[in-house]
């Protein structure tokens, strides 16, 4: 049997962040150029950070020099959480210890996965986006001897 932790362990760079509606429409909620990093450690620790592509174009300011609207824009365009994980045969569970989304702290985020070579596809359970039920699909590429950025 393959050691699943060894397949997952490492740093992954986001390739695509999509939401699929139940009628098959593909949506890019954070743009086609969203950026992100996912890390799985060998002690079952994990962390993920994803940024909306539009945040790249905002004026670079320190938070204390920003308006409330600017801060809200950056906050709403950035997702991050950390914790630990457990791999099952067809899904992985992220046990969330800390998150920008406070409602996720203490929850279990279940993701169906497909993994082959250096590509990892994670799919969410059904969630609501703008009043529509969607399944998020994130495609990650393993970073091997290359910069994350």
List keywords for this structure.
8-stranded antiparallel barrel, globular, 149 residues, Lipocalin, mainly beta
Total number of helical segments? Answer: 2
- In round numbers, the mean pLDDT is 90
Helical residues, percent = under 10%
How many domains? The number is 1
Report the uncertain regions.
Answer: none
- State the name of the first-level CATH class: Mainly Beta
**What is the element string, with H for helices and E for strands?**
HEEEEHEEEEEE
Compute the separation of the termini in Å.
Answer: 34 Å
Rg: 16 Å
By CATH, the topology is: Lipocalin
Q: How many beta strands in the DSSP annotation?
A: 10
In what range is the share of β-strand residues?
over 45%
Overall form? globular
Strands across the major sheet, in which order? 1-3-4-5-6-7-8-10
Structural class: mainly beta
CATH architecture: Beta Barrel
> Largest sheet, described in full?
8 strands, antiparallel, barrel
SSE topology:
Layout: H1 4-8, E1 10-21, E2 26-27, E3 35-40, E4 45-51, H2 68-76, E5 78-87, E6 91-99, E7 108-116, E8 119-124, E9 127-129, E10 132-142
Antiparallel strand pairs: 1-2, 1-3, 1-10, 3-4, 4-5, 5-6, 6-7, 7-8, 8-10, 9-10
């Amino acid at each position: 049997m393959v050691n699943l932790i060894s397949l997952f362990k490492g740093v992954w760079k986001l390739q695509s962040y999509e939401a699929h509606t139940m009628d098959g429409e593909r949506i890019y909620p954070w743009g086609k150029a969203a950026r992100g990093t996912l890390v799985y450690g060998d002690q079952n620790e994990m962390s993920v950070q994803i940024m909306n592509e539009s945040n790249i174009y905002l004026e670079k300011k320190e938070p204390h020099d920003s308006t409330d609207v600017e801060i809200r824009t950056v906050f709403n365009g950035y997702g991050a959480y950390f914790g630990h994980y457990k791999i099952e045969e067809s899904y992985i569970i992220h046990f969330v210890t800390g998150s920008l989304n406070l409602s996720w702290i203490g929850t279990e985020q279940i993701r169906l996965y497909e993994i082959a070579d250096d590509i990892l596809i994670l799919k969410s359970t059904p969630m609501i986006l703008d009043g529509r039920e969607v399944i998020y699909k994130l495609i990650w590429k393993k970073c091997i001897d290359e910069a994350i950025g």
